[in-house]
Design goal:
With 70 residues, the chain is mainly beta. The protein has one helix spanning 22-28, and strands spanning 5-9, 12-16, 36-40, 43-45, 60-65.
């Protein structure tokens, strides 16, 4: 029996059955790491820490994409 991990990304559940870092998840979901701000469990994360955070069940991730314009 496989153990699934469920995290919440921008309020929506996301299930996976492997160990993923925050960076792995962002890349898997095709986010451009140069133009996002990430909040992990209600704390803003510096981009150099994405590799050091490994996801656990019920973690909450908010991803904000920076868009330029005029």
């Amino acid at each position: 029996m496989e153990k699934y991990i469920t995290v919440f990304i921008n309020g929506d559940p996301f299930n996976f059955n492997d160990v993923m870092s925050l960076k792995d998840l962002l890349l898997y979901l095709n986010f451009n790491l140069n133009v996002v701000i990430v909040e992990y469990n209600k704390e803003i994360v510096a981009d150099f820490n994405y590799d050091n955070i490994f996801l656990k069940t019920n973690d909450s991730i908010e991803v904000i994409t920076i868009v330029g314009g005029g």
